[in-house]
Amino acid sequence: MKKYVLSFNSTHHAILAEGVFKSEAIEYKMIPTPRHVSLSCGLSIVFSKDDLDRVNKLIEDKKIEGEVFDY
Fold first, then answer.
1. Cβ proximity of 21 and 47 under 8 Å
2. Residues in domain Putative Se/S carrier protein-like (predicted)?
3. Cα dist. 9→1, 25, 37, 57 in Å?
4. pLDDT tens string for the chain (71 positions)?
């Protein structure tokens, strides 16, 4: 199954996103940011392709500063 990683500019946004993922019942895993992602606070969230559209909408709606990459 295809996965994506959401990386963040700050730890604040990583923690905010984790709370949103939990409240929206989106399956995820918090991981250290993969090396191919250049700018990050060091934390990232991995999630399924099935949730990509939902995650993109939540990023916009909740004003989470993050960027989605293939994983």
1. yes
2. 3-66
3. 27, 23, 11, 18
4. 899 999 998 999 999 999 999 999 999 999 999 988 876 789 999 999 999 999 999 999 999 999 999 98
CB 46 within 8 A of CB 28: yes
- Measure the CA–CA gap between 26 and 11, rounded to whole angstroms: 20
What value, to the nearest 5°, has the Cα angle with vertex 8 and ends 27 and 34?
75
Tokens of 32: 């250290």
Q: Tell me the pTM.
A: 0.91
Bridge partner residues of 47 (DSSP): 4, 28
Query: Which amino acid makes up residue 57?
Result: K
